[in-house]
Amino acid sequence: MLSLLNQYSRGRIAWLLLSLSVIIFEITALYFQHGLGLPPCTLCIYQRCALLGILFASIIGIIASQNIILRMIAILIWLFSAFKGFNLATFQAQLQFAPNLGDTCSVNVQFPSWLSLNEWFPSIFNAYGSCAEKLWSFLTIEMSQWMIIIFACYLVVGLAVLISQLFSPNKKSIWRK
């Protein structure tokens, strides 16, 4: 199975599927914000950025899936972004369900001066909601808990892909294209 996963990581289709999943989650987040009128909090915006990190990794994978160095860089960016997103979602869930006295969430997002996304794209990267507020749930699971599940899935699959790089790929596969 790991050699098959290695083979998938060498093809563009798997990386396209990864980017498609991120695009779907980003569109969903924008629908929640602009369609349903749910105000994003600072942690929500940072989680969006973590998803964009996974999208960036998938673009590297699409462009250079056959190059082992660039593929490993893409996998490491994927894992780093998924880990950061998982930590942010876990912290947001903690703020919502079991807040500590010292836990706070910044009112404004803070990007580096050379990447001030909140000024360039305020309708996407400006936060005006509360991190501790529970606004939406599905199947009795809050949005922050769904994000924990989503980032955990990205993390598990990314780790499997990383481990699969140690195995030789299957030679006969339709996924190589």
Mean pLDDT: 84
Instruction: Output the helix-strand order.
Output: HHHHHHEEH
Name the shape in a single word: globular
CATH architecture: Up-down Bundle
Number of helices: 7
Order of strands side by side in the largest beta sheet? 1-2
Low-confidence stretches: 173-177
Q: Provide the domain count.
A: 1
**Rg from alpha-carbon coordinates:** 18 Å
The helix-and-strand class reads mainly alpha
What is the CATH superfamily label? DsbB-like
Q: State the CATH class.
A: Mainly Alpha
Distance between the termini: 19 Å
The total strand number stands at: 2
The share of residues in extended strands comes to under 5%
What percent of the residues sit in helical stretches (DSSP H or I)? 55-70%
- CATH fold title: Bromodomain-like
